[in-house]
Amino acid sequence: MSTAPDTAPDEPTNPVPQPVPHTTPVTVPVPAPVTALADGFGARWTAGILAAFLPGGDGDGRAAELGRLDRLAGDGDFGTNITSALGRARQAVEAEPPRDYRGWLTAVSRGFLGTGGTSGPLFGMFFRDLARCCDAGEPTLAELSAGLGTAVATVQRYGRAEVGHKTMVDALVPAARTLEAEVAAGTAAAEALARTADAAVEGARGTAALVARRGRASYVGDVARGVLDPGAAAAAIVLQAAAAAQSGDPVDTGWVSG
């Protein structure tokens, strides 16, 4: 006679755990926060640039000092060219004030593109790329960083200059790298732009120790050693004006002649 139960035994109340298949964790990148620039940033940046370079305004009017530096190391036309370029930009914005960031920076670009010499077209293309970093309104900090990177690449491509050649590139490359890093770190806009300007100033001041490899200053060799490159100084002042446009602080350009 069979002793097997008529029904199957109940399932165990505490089943043996089954091994979980090994999986590789997926790292999801965290996007950088969107940091908006202040309302009217483009207008304030342009006004700061005009005041910093042109005489008779609220700023330092550094065009003449940059011309003096260029006479020591080049052909002496830089101060005149930057005054002419920004004078045209000022006339344009006074005649018809732009409506947004892109319009303000485009006015500065066109002022330089109508200027002779080597620096005029380079600065013109530089500001053109900055103007194009956003379609409407004010750019975000990330958009400005991307625009600065594009602008610097354009200057290097057409100017055929690298860091260490004693040109505006010595100020612009470290500035662009700094701003890119600050955007990735989520730094607030005012602080990020201040650090960007500081990097540009440091790069510009470093040109005094260099022997020029590009531009007119390359013709005089060691004669230009000890003299700031005026293009690098101008580029740094432009980025100082950007920082001031966000923070509201004044632009201090005393380092140019200090």
TrEMBL record:
InterPro entries under this entry? DhaL_dom, DhaL_dom_sf, Dihydroxyacetone_Kinase
Specify where the region named Disordered lies, as residue ranges: 1-27
Any one Gene Ontology MF annotation carried by this entry is:
kinase activity
Supply the Gene3D superfamilies for this chain. 1.25.40.340
UniProt biased composition (Pro residues): 12-27
Q: Which SMART domains match?
A: Dak2
Q: Which UniProt keywords apply?
A: Kinase, Transferase
Under Pfam families, the record lists:
Dak2
As given in the record, the signal peptide range reads: none
| Positions of the DhaL domain | 46-244
Superkingdom of the organism of origin: Bacteria
The record's annotation in PANTHER family points to: TRIOKINASE/FMN CYCLASE, TRIOKINASE_FMN CYCLASE
What is the protein name for this chain?
Answer: DAK2 domain-containing protein
Provenance organism = Streptomyces doudnae
